Amino acid sequence: MGPGVSYECEVQDGSHINEDHFYPEIIHPDTLVQLPHGQQGELVFTTLTKEGMPLLRYRTKDLCTLYDGQCACGRTSVRMGRIIGRSDDMLIIRGINVFPSQVESVILEMPEFEPQYMLVVDRVNNLDTLQVQVEVRRDFFGDDIGRMLNMKKTLADKLKSVLSISADVKLMEPGSIERSQGKGKHVIDKRKLV
Amino acid sequence: MTIKQLSIFLENKTGRINEVTKILGQHGINMHAFSMAETTDFGILRLIVSEVDKAVEVLREANFAVMLTDVVWITCPNVAGSLSHILDHLAEQHIFIEYMYAFAEGDQANVIIRPNDIDHCIQVLKKCDCNIHNSL
Ligand SMILES: [Zn+2]
Question: Do residues B16 and B8 make contact, with C-beta atoms less than 8 angstroms apart?
Fold first, then answer.
């Protein structure tokens, strides 16, 4: 048992990394290029004191940001921010990083929709497109088509503010989206099929 | 003096309406009138059927999102200008029609109306040359 990678102080403004024992880096998950502290990317570790089985630039698959500078608690070690997703799940759409978990958090906030969704990514005329399929809850289905379109627009607006790119929302019948067994079943990336 | 209409949420997907009609047919439920409102990715199928409660039950069993909506069913003479005359009256009384659909049957024309203010609409219709139906 060696020391832990990081620990939280009383300020809880990120997690302090045990820099005596671990050397952290942030890389771009696709290009693998090292990114400066302050930018979001995949966390990579190198162990400095482990003997026998050291880890060299071990890819955690966790996406976060590293912060320099003194913490309010007085410590000056590098801190890592909250893990915002897994690099495996990350989609790059029109140059923007998109996580299924971001879409999920928006949908879970809206009682109009079932907690089921599917992201369909495609490329049309050299432009990435994102369609978000959601199931309308039975109780929220209405005879008023204007209200249904409003529901769709509200979700599209929320997604845009969270994702920074616009998504086409498709309202689906309840029960029509395949229930996923594992993670990663929330995405159909048609760009890979071409 | 209203009747119950079935409103069914449908994805725009080939064969989805067939499934509705098939289920109703299998249960011996007759469709008197229907209309389809559609957008690019979904539609609302509006149906007047013989056995409303049974229709809701069997469609919900088959996983359809179904709800009931109060609508007004009138018949008026199937002659030129007769519907126009009724609609003039409704407009004069500032009754807004969200949607309507119609089918002719011999010398009678059946019209299903979904107004914004259903009670007011019925009051006005009572003064017009038409019959308002309580049930099918
Ligand atoms: Zn601290």
Answer: no
Q: Indicate the residue of A141, A149, A170 with minimum beta-carbon distance to B65.
A: A141
pLDDT above 90 coverage of chain A, percent: 69
Fold of domain A6-86: Luciferase; domain 3 (2.30.38)
Amino acid identity of A114? E
Nearest CA in chain A to B46: A143
Q: Is B105 helix (H, G, I), strand (E, B) or coil?
A: strand
Contact B44 A175 (CB under 8 A): no
In degrees, rounded to 5, the angle at the alpha carbon of residue A153 between the alpha carbons of residues A152 and A157 is: 125
- Vertex A32, ends A130 and A29: CA angle to 5°? 35
- Asked whether the predicted pLDDT for residue A183 surpasses 70, the reply is no
Flag whether pLDDT at A37 surpasses 80. Answer: yes
The CATH number corresponding to A91-193 among 3.30.300.30, 3.40.220.10, 3.30.499.10, 3.90.1200.10 equals 3.30.300.30
Question: Angle CA(B65)–CA(B67)–CA(B73) in degrees, nearest 5?
Answer: 140
- Position B12 scores a pLDDT of 83
Mean pLDDT of B18-42: 93
- The residues of chain A that CATH labels 3.30.300.30 are 91-193
Contact criterion met (CB below 8 Å) for B128 and B89: yes
Q: Convert the pLDDT of each residue in B53-70 to its tens digit.
A: 999 999 999 989 999 999
